Amino acid sequence: MDRIDDLEAFLAIVDEGSLTAAGRRLGRSLQAISRSLATLERGIGVELVQRTTRLSQPTEAGRAFYHRIKPVLQELNEARLEAATRRSETSGVLRIGASVLFGPAYLVPVIARFMERHPQIRVELELSDRFVDLTDEGLDLAVRIGHLPDSSLKARRLGELRRVFFGSPEYFDKHGRPEHPQDLWRHQCVVRSTDRQDDAWPVLIDGKSGTVRVNGRFRADDAASTYAAVAQGLGIGFTPLWQIRDLVDRGVLELVLVPFEPPTVPIHAVWHGSKLTPAKTRMFIDSLARELECDRL
């Protein structure tokens, strides 16, 4: 395999446009740069750079080789830097963002176990239901629920979350259970009034996504109130399963219309798109992926 310094010399020649400038960038002599290029070309068996008195330009083969090896060499250098800094970066403050309900219930247990394994790391958890800017808020990473907009952030998919229809046993005893999404129109529905589309619930019918219109006598602008209202028998609700999992497990609420649940919603860890990710951030993301088990939520 060609030596790394020969590859670095070739990249510097193409970037700088001359052997002399490449030598200055790498802190090597002109003779050393020239030897590296000659060794590389001899090993590959093709001319990579056309030399003139003042300029050095890549050949067609050289340009293709440049574009193939540049990202590989960058990754290799970053890997070496990560390995060298891994020990020092497993300390300090890790600032994490998450949604108001999800953070306490599902992230805090993972954080507690992570802090026990890494006693030199301190964690600050910032909760918001907005997709906040990581840089503006000073966050190292955030856990986001929903489809991600295009951005410069890196992301790792942690799993998927179900969205479900639910009601109380008392309500179903009095009013019956809906067998099809269209039946919801004849039922009282408890709506969370957060936007103009709050009365259009997503469904999946015959493999196709759609919506059904719902109506009811009770509305609230926060999730906890809607869950309490459904538990009191005021109607049928719709929400991510993880938010009512404990109530379902205890029999306070029951799921309906399971075959018609809309597509699952992805959950991701997102962090800064810089090439080098601090070890503390990378290690916590690994812990999330291993311990969160979002396929059950």
From TrEMBL:
Keywords tagged on the record: DNA-binding, Transcription, Transcription regulation
Keyword Hydrolase assigned: no
Record domain HTH lysR-type: where: 1-59
Sections of the chain in a coiled coil: none
InterPro entries tied to this protein: LysR-type_TF_proteobact-type (IPR058163), LysR_HTH_N (IPR000847), LysR_subst-bd (IPR005119), WH-like_DNA-bd_sf (IPR036388), WH_DNA-bd_sf (IPR036390)
Pfam families per UniProt: HTH_1 (PF00126), LysR_substrate (PF03466)
KW Transcription (keyword) present: yes
Top-level taxon: Bacteria
PANTHER family per the UniProt record, alphabetical: HTH-TYPE TRANSCRIPTIONAL ACTIVATOR TTDR-RELATED, HTH-TYPE TRANSCRIPTIONAL REGULATOR
Name this protein carries in UniProt: LysR family transcriptional regulator
Organism: Microvirga arsenatis
